[in-house]
Every structure is written in C-alpha cells, then in structure tokens.
Amino acid sequence: KMCEYVFSICEKIAGGYKATFFSSAAPPVVEEKIEKEFRPAFSYLDKNLTLLNETVDRSLLNNFLREQYPELGGLDLRPSSNDKVDERAQKVERERDAPSLLCRVVWIQIVTRIYNRLNAYGGAAEGTQTKNRKADGVNSGSRRPLTEVEKRQVEVFDLCLEFLKAFFYCDIDGRNCGFPLADLEDRMYLDTRTLIKTLNAL
Hints:
The protein is mainly α. The chain has 8 helices and 2 strands; from the N terminus they run ααααααββαα. The protein has a two-stranded antiparallel ribbon with strand order 1-2. A hairpin with a 2-residue loop joins strand 1 and strand 2. Helix 2 runs parallel beside helix 6 and helix 6 packs antiparallel against helix 8 (187-200).
C-alpha cells in the first residue's frame, strides 16, 4: 500500500498538468511547486517506514525480504553458527545500524510503477510489463511525438523519481544515512532514466 499511495501522488501531480479551455499547452513545470505537492509522500513514507522499523524485528524482516527479493543482493549481515561470539555481535550491530531492506523494496516497487507509467507515453501499450523491456530499458516499437501536456507530465515523473532517490539516499549534513547511490541507481532506475531521455527526445 505504501508504494501505491506514493505512486498515486505522482500520478495526481502529473495529472494536474493538462490543457485548458483557453490553451492546448500545459503550464510550465516548476520544481519548487512539485516538491511542495510531493511532501505528503515524504511524510507518509517517513511515518510508516519508521513505525515498521520500530515494531518489526529487523533481522526477521530482512531475512524474509531476502527470500522474497533475491535481486536485493548486498552484504548478508545475518549471523551464522560458525561465527565467533564477537563476530556475531558485530554483525547484529551492523545490521541494526544499516538501512532497512524494506526501504529498498519500496524504492524498487515505486520505480517500477513509474517506469511502467512512462512507458505508456508515445504510443506504447498501456500496462506493458517491465520484463518485456529491451536491454536499453525502452520497449521496441515506434513512438509518436509527445504532446506538450505529455511532456510536462514526463517532467513531473522525472522530478518525483529524483525526489524519491534523495529521500532514500538520506543526506544529513553531507553524510549518507540511507542507501548508497550504487544501490539506488540499479538496473530499473537506469532503465527509467533512459526511457525519460528517449521520451524527452520525441
């Protein structure tokens, strides 16, 4: 539900950029305005992710997510029976201090939704699945030029994507307190950026 709610805010903001009775062109996209409208998503994520992190056992949750999402990869900090006592304690402490894998799953799911929505622009079939995308991240087939309204909407999704990346990176006084960029700029993110670049060139 977290992913659906955040994505719905992206869609709502993008949907606000449309032609009017007086003009076929949508108003220009202003980053500060989009960020203000996107703040409820930040508040929602912060509240719910904090609640889950405080009420659900971190190790159990991470173990479950690793089994459900093998693509998460990364360092496995789970203690094993072969570890020495001090090694087990260090692993437990490191996992406790590391960002929750739940945040990574939410990031992946939201980016996937943004990719699928963007892929419908320019004539691609609505609901095209990510598993069918080409290696360069863009589905095959010709695309028509975007309307001015569609270009504005793509801009909005582009901004929302970068706002979310900054949220999960979590820069506090120049220190990365969330996931490193190497984790956030994964294949799905890069495919989405390639798709945005392609749409902007239409």
